Amino acid sequence: MKGKNKINVIIYVIILLFSLGNLVFAEDSTEEQVKQGNSYYENGKYDLAEKYWKMAADKGNVDALYALGILYEDADKLDLAEKYYKLAADKGYADAQYNLGVLYDDQKKYDLAEAYYKKAAAQGDVDAQYNLGCLYDTQKNFTEAEKYYKLAADQGDKGAQYNLGCLYDTQKKFALAEQFYRLAANQGDIDAQYNIGILYKNQKKFVLAEKYWKMAADQDDLEAQNNLGILYEEQKKYDLAEIYYKKAADGGLKDAQYNLGLFYSDRGKKDLSKKYSELAENNK
What we know:
single chain, mainly alpha, Serine Threonine Protein Phosphatase 5, Tetratricopeptide repeat, 16 helices, elongated, disordered N terminus
């Protein structure tokens, strides 16, 4: 009996090792199929990419499932994109959860979009957190919007920082609005630079208003250029006022054309006044 048991144990170990070897080989084989699919995709051979990804996907490889979702979405085969994103998403793949959320968002299936954004957001996906904030903002669920904007903002997302600034601005929480506008503005967000300039002007912090409007103006924001023109004219810095009015006016901003027309009229420059006044009048 002892000898028989020993032989059975040895046979079991051999079978187990053989099975594990096959499993490792299968995993290696699947990874190779994914890599082969990636290579074909990068070279524009989408049929072959699809073939190899499908081989791996049929064995449950999550990267292949996700890749097929992208392939089908790019080809506008949205039913198939949804199918493969969902297979990957249900395995906990955050990027697939996010992309599925976007797919449902675009289709106005907001309950489903919310569900999948939440799954990805819970894994720290910053884009999902931002989009979820936008979804709640649109639905006027400002408590949840704030929560998810803040999660994304704390990861450095400038869009979330700007939107959070707007949310606090609307709620007249100006210190918080300033904080998040500044974070976004210092990352180059033009709208945040413009809005924080307005905030500072209303607080009569003209040096700071000038600083942030100039940042936006240097990125060709016409409203910021016009506001700088107004600020410099009020400060009697007429050369600078003319420069910024002209930038915005020549960029097609009606208010700047009107302001520049008045500016030249006050200085007796009738031809220039007429030119910009007519531009404003004809600017529909």
